[in-house]
Amino acid sequence: MSDPTPILELKRLSKSFRSSQSVLGRLRGHRAPVLRAVREVSLTLNSGETLGIVGESGCGKSTLGRCVTGLYEPDEGHVLYAGRPFFESGTRFERSRAIQMIFQDPYSSLNPRMTLAQALDEVLFVHGLRKGAGERNDRVDELLLTVGLSPTLKHRLPHAFSGGQRQRVSIARALAVEPRIIVADEPVSALDASVQAQIINLFVELRDRLGIAYLFIAHDLNVVRYVSRRIAVMYLGQIVEIADADAIFDRPCHPYTKALLSAIPQADPEHRRTTASIEGDLPDPLSPPAGCSFSTRCPLANETCRSVPPPSRMVEGHVVRCHRAEEVAAMSEPLGAPSGSR
Predict the structure, then answer these.
(1) Spatial contact of 323 and 307, defined as CB atoms under 8 Å apart
(2) Nearest to residue 295, comparing CAs of 286, 305, 280, 285?
(3) Are 10 and 38 in contact (CB under 8 A)?
(4) Angle formed at CA 186 by CA 16 and CA 195, multiple of 5 degrees
């Protein structure tokens, strides 16, 4: 029988940063404003599952990923790994082995002065996973083969490789400690489109073969749908909707999610739909709206939306933060689409 305990659980997780302040402000004794990058995020991740995190730039996706890996310690809330408090159990090395991170830029995430063999061997040595040099050398070869690279390349420096090859090395480095969770932060956005597909397929293959769970952060909704079983939509530091991937695409319950989906380009001109752009700019994160975070840009917003923060609630199988979620779910047209549009 499978373990019902999620491999990862976030409970009302929040992370803030104090912004920089001018010299004059410091002299006057003013306190620097606080940026709440992540606000009361709750979600679960099961073993072998991929949970996609989507949203506009600046919505807090990467900060959330860094809180999960321990690069940032949250100000409030809890991170539970296999049911245990992540920041209170085990040593730093044990925590880093359990959850690894793959970063967006493969050109800056590798040490330019270390060969592939040295970069992977260092991970194995530090974590004591292979005691002898010969064992570590064999494991380096195995890791490279796992990500589709020839071991004959292991004595080369990173500058000799393409972006896609470097990202494969980053994946091999994460796999070296045999993690149960990988946080992938925009792992294909810096790559060419043809290479993106290869790396995405590698992620799927590794998940199916090794049972790794992914927190997959991206802005491309089509990529997220391909790799994810569930999708969480972030806006201004909050999760505004979580549901199964197909349910998110077929019947979104939050107006922000609906607007994002309606803006996806359609390749087939016979099936192109009228898109509805999201009006207005992202609110100042230092001073978010009093009510719903999306109320300043939502065409459905009323006085309740502008003054009362919506709680997370279940609507048609979706966990959603919206006072008017039932109305959004019932709509067949994009928000703001002109009458008569397809």
Answers:
(1) no
(2) 305
(3) no
(4) 170
State the number of CA atoms in the 13 A half-sphere of 213 facing the CB: 20
- Measured CA to CA, the distance from residue 328 to residue 253 in angstroms comes to 5
| Closest alpha carbon to 291 in 305, 281, 302, 303 | 305
Around Cβ 158, how many Cβ atoms within 10 Å? 21
d(CA 130, CA 137): 9
pTM for this predicted structure = 0.88
In order along the chain (342 residues), what is the average pLDDT of each group of 10 residues?
Answer: 77 89 56 86 96 92 93 92 76 74 90 94 89 91 96 95 95 95 93 91 95 94 92 96 95 94 69 58 83 93 95 95 94 51 26
DSSP secondary structure of 137-206: HHHHHHHHHHTT--GGGTTS-GGGS-HHHHHHHHHHHHHTT--SEEEEESTTTTS-HHHHHHHHHHHHHH
**78 has which bridge partners?**
11
90 burial type by CB count under 10 A (0-12 exposed, 13-18 middle, 19+ buried): middle
Of the chain, the end-to-end C-alpha distance in Å amounts to: 48
